[in-house]
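ok here's Calcineurin-like phosphoesterase family protein, seq below lol
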Amino acid sequence: MKLPKSAQVSKPVRRMAAVGAAAVVGATVVFGGGFATAAGAEGVATSTGIVLGVGADEAQRVVSWYSSVGTAQVVQVVPTSKIRKGVFPANAVTFPATVAANTVNGGFNGHATIDGLKQNTRYSYRVGAEGAWSQTYEFQTQRFDGNFDFLFYGDPQIGASGNTAKDGEGWADTVSVSLAANPHAELLVSGGDQVETANTESQWDAFLAPDGLRSYPWAATIGNHDVGGKAYEQHFWTPNTDRSAAYYNGAAATRSGGDYWFTYKDVLFIDLNSNAYASGSDEAHIAYVTDVIKKHGAKAEHTVLVYHHAIYSPAAHANDGDNKQRRQDFPTAFSELGVDLVLQGHDHSYSRSYEIKNGQKANPDEQPGATKVQQGPGGVIYVTANSASGSKYYDLTAPDTTADPDYGPDPLNPDSHWANSVENQEHVRTYVRVRVRDGKLVVENLRSGTCAGPNAAVELGKVDWCGPDSGATAAKPVGSVVDKVVIHTYKADKGHHGKPGKNDKPEKNDQPKSSWLH
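and the structure came out like this:
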C-alpha cells in the first residue's frame, strides 16, 4: 500500500527491505516520551520526545522527535490492519525526515510530514532507520468533513510548582481523563507554556510523557516560558509557519516559534506567537491574520485564533503592560476580519468573554453566564483556559480602573471585568472542549481533577484553599461542567459558500459521525 502523493512535501521513499521481527521485538521503550533503541544495531540510535503534530489539513500529520544521530531518518507509516505479528510489511511507506543539530542537548532533532492520509483509517508509525526503529504508535483519521470535537489545554507549565514529577502527574492525568471522556476528539490544541523553563529537557520529558501526544495531533502554541531557547520549535514542527523576525521575541540565537495556520474541516486555525508584541509586532500579527483569512477564510465556516497572552485576563495578568497594549491593538481587527473564537492561556484561570465587537460588549443585554449566544457581525468570543496540570493557579482579581481605566467592572456583575461573562478559579485542573456542530461552536470548560492529587499547587501549599466559591463549596467530580456556551456563529447563520444557513438545525450532543476502528 502506498499513500497518495502530495506536492506539499517531499515524495515518500519506499523502504529497501522488509523489517525483521527482531527490529520490532528488540525495541526497548525507556520512558513515555518515546525513547527507544534497537537491539543489536551497529551505532545504535535513540529516538526521544516523539510527538504527533497537526499538518496543513486533515490528510497530514507532522511527527517530531529528538535523535542521538544525525544520519538519514524517516517516519514509516502503514495502515494498522496491514501489520502482522508486530512486523511492518515490505511495502510500508516512509517519509524522509529533516534532521538538524540540536542546540539544546547536543544531539539532533528531526521532523517529517506524513501526507496523503485517508479518512476513517487507523495508522501505525515509527521513526528512525533500519535497525534502529522507535516503538510503534498509532493514530486514527476520521471523516474529512462534518462535525468534530477538539480539546484545548491551558498552561501545563511543567516545573512551575518546583516539583517536575508532580506537575507531570497532573498533566498526564488531565490528558488521560480528557481523552477517555472524548476518544473521538480530533485535535489537541495548546494554550502555550508547555514547560517552566524553555531548555530544561527534564520538564519536556514530563510534558511529552503521555502517549496521547503520539496518538492525537498536538497543535502547539508558544508561551512566554517556552521562549529563550530553541527547544519549542525543535520539539514541534508546525505547518505554514512564518518565522520572520517580527513574530519572534528575543535574540536571534534563542528565537523560537513564529505564526502559523492550518485548516481542519470547516475551521481555519491561526496560531500566533504573542510573545512578540513590541516594535510593530502586533501590526505584523494582524497583517499575518489578515493575509491568511483573505487567502483561506472563504473556505472556512469558522475562524479560530490561538495565542498565549489572554488579552481579557481575569487574574494576575489582567493589567500587564503587554495585555493593555493588545487590548488596544487586536479586538477591532479581529472583529473586522470575522474571527469567531479566540483561545488563550497565560493567566492560569478560566474566563469566557461576552460577545466582543471592536473592543466593546456587542450586546448590552447579554447576561453573565448566558448559555447561548447569537453572534452578530464582528462578534468575537475570547476564552482563557485554566491550568491543565495543576502546577500553578492565579486567583481572580477585582477590576482595577487605576491600572487600566478601560478595563473596569461589569455593570451586570461588578466583581468581574466588563469583558467577561464568566470568570472562574477553583484550584482544580480543567480543560476546554470545543464542539464544531452545524454552524455552532459549543464551548465547555470541564474539570479534569478535584482538590485531591495529582494537584501540585494544592499538594505543595502554593494555594491555601480549593473548590468552588473560594473553597466554601466541596469540589465537584471529575468530568463535571464549569461553564458551557453554545455560540451560533454569524457566518454559518448567513450561509457558507452560498449554501443555506445551518443554525436552524438542532444541537447534536452526540459525537461526530466517524468510523473509529478499534
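fwiw The longest helix spans residues 164-181. kinda neat tbh
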